[in-house]
Amino acid sequence: MLCRKKSFCFESMISRPNEDNPSESKFLLFKGLILALMSGIIYSFISVLVKGITNLHPGQLALYRFLALFIFSLPQTVKSGENPLGPKDLQILLFIRGILGGLHIFLNFIAFRCLPLGEATAIVFSLPAFVTVAARICLKEPCSVLQLVTIALTILGIIFTAKLPSSLMNGNFAYNTESMYGFLVALGSLACNTGQVVVIRMVKRIHHSVLMTHFSIVASVEIAFLTYIFGEYKWHDCGLQSFCIVLLGICSYVGQTLVIIALQLECAGPVTTMKAASDITLAFVWQTFLFHDIPDSCSIVGAVLVVFSVVFIMVGKWIFSSPKDSVQRKRLNWRRFRKTE
């Protein structure tokens, strides 16, 4: 009870503006969304690394990722003085989170290898719609009309970036075995990631270093077993590839830490929407300038819709933080956008 009370007070201090220091209150107001944006940028770079290292199985790269998470997070956990396995009453949830998170990364890395970078990212990061619904059902999180609009824009943007309108117009539904396998793997990764995000919100009072340590232990064992069954282990090349693997581990730790803190500060729906929007947009930037695959008109329309969804998230957060009798709420008739409890 004491821990829960402290967690509640901590969130209240973050979510409520500080009238004495307006600049600080603005930063705290958008802190969760800013961290989610930064996490999306880092994860988009991770996808480039996974796409570029073709001689190693995606499961082996995922194992490197979780070993790096363990190495970086363990000292922080020891310094915090908390149990690395977490509180006893939440260890089952932490174990479930580790299984779902490990399977999500394993399938996600395979999807990056089997599908074009933009398509794989669009499928995997259609997460916000599923997370918002799951969070509403499992966590009773509020869901406003404005948030539903941003979700709809994100999904519509994903439809365009996946070139579904073009496929419908041309009647071209031909998929080879590798593409169909990648599509199913990406859907599996999406399902596991949805469950993982909901569980993180359920255990948000736990320090992020404990979450990372427990997650890395469970996922490392899981990934090592899955790679042994479905893939193979190889020695990586010396030189540039070794540097890329180290960079993969560092970026994985930083990106995972940012998204966990963001989920502890902000509701799951806005965080995943912001992260997905930034990741999808940058995926096409990397695809254009690094892999020299110029996006078509559908991809451009999708990117614009995704950017609009990010703008709506920020505007909605700003308006909802303003007083009930503020000019902004009165002008936009905020009653229509109140959260549904």
Automatic annotation (TrEMBL):
Record-annotated EamA domain positions: 31-161
Q: Which gene encodes it?
A: NCL1_38594
What protein is this chain from? Solute carrier family 35 member G1
Is Lipid biosynthesis among the key words of this record?
no
Q: Where in the cell is it found?
A: Membrane
- This protein's source sits in the domain of life called Eukaryota
> What SUPFAM superfamilies would the database entry show?
Multidrug resistance efflux transporter EmrE
Organism of this sequence = Trichonephila clavata
Q: GO CC terms for this protein?
A: membrane
Q: Which InterPro entries match?
A: EamA_dom (IPR000620), EmrE-like (IPR037185)
Instruction: Give yes or no: UniProt keyword Coiled coil.
Output: no
Q: Which residues cross the membrane?
A: 27-50, 62-78, 90-110, 122-139, 145-162, 183-203, 209-231, 243-265, 300-320
What high-level taxonomic lineage is stated for the organism? Eukaryota, Metazoa, Ecdysozoa, Arthropoda, Chelicerata
Record keywords: Membrane, Transmembrane, Transmembrane helix
Q: How does it sit in the membrane?
A: Multi-pass membrane protein
